[in-house]
Write a structure and sequence with these properties.
With 479 residues, the protein is of the alpha/beta class. It folds into three domains: 85 residues; 120 residues, Alpha-Beta Complex (Aspartate Aminotransferase, domain 1), CATH 3.90.1150; 249 residues, Aspartate Aminotransferase, domain 2 (3-Layer(aba) Sandwich). Helices cover 43% and strands 17% of the residues. The protein has a seven-stranded mixed beta sheet, with helices on both faces. A hairpin with a 2-residue loop joins strand 5 and strand 6. The N terminus is likely disordered. It binds pyridoxal-5'-phosphate (PLP). The site of pyridoxal-5'-phosphate has 14 residues, from helix 8 and strand 9.
Amino acid sequence: MSKGPEEAIITGISRESCSNVSELPRVDRVALRADLSELRQNLGQAALTSLVRAAIDRARDDLLKDPAKPAPSADVVADMVRSLATEAFAPRARRVINATGVLLHTNLGRAPLSQRASAAVSATMEGYCSIELDLATGKRGKRGAFMEAALSQLTGSESAVVVNNCAAAVLLLLATVARGRPVIVSRGELVEIGGGFRVPDVMAESGAKLVEVGTTNKTRVADYERALDAHPDTAAILRVHPGNFRQIGFVERPALADLAALAKARNVSLLKDLGGGALVELADAGFPGEPMVESAIRAGVNAVTFSTDKVLGGPQGGAIVGDEAIVGRVRKHPLIRAFRLGRLPMVALEATLESYLAGSAWSDVPTLAMARVDLASLRTRAEALVRALSARGVTVRVAETQAEMGGGSLAGRSIPSIGVVVSVADHDSAGAFVAHLREHRLPVIGRVDPSGVVLDLRTVAPRDDEGLGDAVTLSWQRV
Ligand SMILES: *Cc1c(COP(=O)(O)O)cnc(C)c1O
């Protein structure tokens, strides 16, 4: 692990004689211990042996640094092996209860899948599936045909293609439309989305040449016109929807339709990176200001990119919808294969889009359903939880909270929500309390605020209320 065998032997010969290194337990002895049988079963003997070797290497380094130290016993080394195993193998993705009130939590996998989507995934996961076979003809079928037809239908666009995230969609779109040519972007839209996605950097990678216009707060149609005059070989105007921050005050941007008219007159493409992919009007759930994909298409945008795991509420994916003249070229780009959507997210996305087509998205898709849950039913659940927890000695009360969309969408907008607040002695114990909640069998993610530990129920499925209560009870007993 840390050293090659030769190096280990050389340091061993020169320095081991003056320390307790020779008393270290032997690798094979520790590796065969009965009290490590669970690790052996879960990780296999080979991985366990390398962990033992790493633990003994670490112990040897310690002894060489401090020759007076006694060598650790086999019991202690076995314990070190267990903690190394936790360090290396425990951070697996596990189901958690999201009590943060952030509907699309980037660290928690963004959108939770609908029952319809997860049933479709498990039904196709265990066997083979007809992903590229036309069952009618027995010939090779078009991968993703349903998902693309559904997206075109739902957004009113001619054509659609889906890749594995929106960052890939933007990169591919620019590489297809504008490689080696200028693309005009407002200075107010040269944003960082998070996770290292910066518009200027992605443009550079695509081979497009960035032409900045306007200022941070104001960009007018005339700014774009001047840039088009100065760069007659311009391929496109790119609009970026800044979903994760909001400018207020002295700000101005042209209407999309005006830019579309300009792009058409000058024979360049108008592209829009929307980020969120609203297929329904989110203002209906108290979240105004998230543009619908359909309205961008209707305003005359030639190609729109968006994530399928943000406000759309599906699995990770990135869509490009718009004119067949552009989307058809994207589909033939040599890099499309490198970015293609996997089988499991494709099945999940198809099932999610089915809910939209059927008109049942508001009840099926968890992100949308949670956004619309009424305060009265949240309050009823919170009261039941408070009753159960108080009976177990927990100091807790119902609290009014604010839930957010998250996931880089609708910054600064929140909707009223209800949760519970657990009162703890001080800020440090609140920190310890949320840490214990995360260590629970079914981890609960909450947050600390001045009133205590806040657990928002809007993002918790009602079937998880009991698990939430159990985790709170156990954490209460530990602080
Ligand atoms: C979120 C976002 C992206 C990146 O989407 P991913 O699906 O996370 O790759 C790109 N552009 C905008 C405007 C976004 O909001």
